[in-house]
Amino acid sequence: MKETEQQRKERERRKDLQRLYGFRPMDDDFMRCLFKDNIPLAELVLRIIIGKKDLIITECQTQKDMKRLVGARSICLDAYGTDSENKKYDCEIQRAGRGANPHRARYHSSVLDIENLDIGQEFSKLPDTYTIFITEKDVYGEGQPIYMVERINLTTGKRFEDGEHILYVNGEFRGESEIGKLMHDFNCTKADDMNFNLMAERTRYLKENPEGVREMCKAMEDMRNEAVEQNILQTIENLMETLKLSAEEAMAAMKIPDDDRGKYLTKL
To answer: Which of 83, 132, 171, 186 is close enough to 25 for a disulfide, judged by CB 3.0 to 4.6 Å?
Structure first.
C-alpha cells in the first residue's frame, strides 16, 4: 500500500525525535538552535574560548548567509556575533577533518572582511575578526585545548597586527579548566550531564519541553527541505555547465513544475 502524505510526515517526525535525543552541541544542526536568539549562551562560550571574561556580545545570528561579491562563493555561518567593541565572531562546528582546512578558515575570514567594509570606508575601519572552528577531533594532534593562528612578520618576528584571528578549538580536550568543561558539555547528549547551566537549560528546553521539541522538529524539517533544494540547484547548474543549457531548459529536462521554477531562478 502506498504511503500517504500524513503517514510520511509522521514517519519523518519519529525519525526526527530519535535524532533529537542523540544530538549534542557538537552537532551543527543542534548547535544552531542552541545559539538562536541566545546572546547569554553565545557570550559564555566566546568568553571561555577567547579568554576575555568581560566580553559583551551585543548581537548573535545563526545561519547567517554572507556573499557581497557577484560570482563569489557564499557561506552560511553557524553563529555570527558582534561584541561591544564591534569585533566580529564567526563560530563554526566542524565534525569532519576536511572542514577545518586552513584554506576554509582563510576564506571565512576574508568574507567577514568583505561583509564589514563598505564603499568609501578606510581600510583602518575594518573590525577585528575571529574565525573559530570547534572541531570534533584534535586536528593538530598536540593535545592543546585551543590552537591560535596569527600572522607574523617573518623578518622581524613580530605579529602583523592586522586584526585577523583564527582559532581551532579541540573538541576532544577535557579537564577541570573552563575550556575542558565546555568541550565536555559540547559532547553531551543529556542536559543533566552538563557543567554550565546556560548550556544545560537550553538543551533541556530543546529536548524535553514540548515547545522546544516542536522548534527542533521544525528546524530539522527546514534543513531537510533546504538540502533537497540545494541538490536540485546543483543539478540545474551541472546541466547548464555540461550540456550548455539555459536555466529554463535544464529545469524543463528535470520536469520541475512551472510554479517552482521562479524560486530556483532567483537562487541561481
So the answer is: 186
- The C-alpha atoms of residue 253 and residue 42 are separated, in whole angstroms, by 46
Q: Which long-range contacts (CB under 8 A, 24 or more apart) does 184-187 make?
A: 185/25, 186/24, 186/25, 186/26, 186/134, 187/24, 187/25, 187/26
Long-range (24+ apart) CB contacts under 8 A made by 249-255 are: none
- Compute the half-sphere exposure of residue 194: CA atoms within 13 Å on the CB side of its CA: 20
pLDDT tens-place string over residues 73-109: 777 888 999 999 999 999 999 887 666 889 999 999 9
Distance CA 252, CA 255 (A): 5
pTM summary value: 0.81
Q: What is the pLDDT of residues 184-193, one digit of tens each?
A: 999 999 999 9
Q: Which residues, in sequence order, are CB contacts of 118 under 8 Å at separation 6+?
A: none
